[in-house]
Amino acid sequence: MTDDVDTSIVRAAADDDSAEANAALARGERAPSAIPPDELARLTDDIVAALKTVYDPEIPADIYELGLIYKIDIEDDRSVHIDMTLTAPGCPVAGEMPGWVENALLGVQGVSHAKVDLVFDPPWTPDRMSEEAQVAVGWF
């Protein structure tokens, strides 16, 4: 995994009426997850493992190690939201890959819903690749 991926697994506190949660939202912070820490750790590991089953068909490396995953959010209802990019905006599987990722996420025990958004800011560059991905493509 590259160090640039936002792996903060948190929930939005928009539905929490407490003054503390509202103050945290006003500061741009998020409330801690209501999911028990051990379950959240398992869910996180399983989500990353699922993401590693999705490959860019033109590159022999998975999308996680390629650095295509920019953000993973797990909500208290166990829905998962992913921000990801592609190696190029004109990628031939741009219309299909988000569905592949959603299907992989829905295969994780405990995930209730999955949503994948394609983002292109910042643009992907090869320096986002992990060492494992660089070895897979013969760059290391």
From TrEMBL:
InterPro entries for this protein: Fe-S_Maturation_MIP18 (IPR052339), FSCA_dom_sf (IPR034904), MIP18-like (IPR002744), SUF_FeS_clus_asmbl-assoc (IPR014291)
Gene3D superfamilies: Fe-S cluster assembly (FSCA)
A family per Pfam: FeS_assembly_P
UniProt signal peptide: none
Domain MIP18 family-like residue range list: 45-116
NCBIfam families: SUF_assoc
Protein name: SUF system Fe-S cluster assembly protein
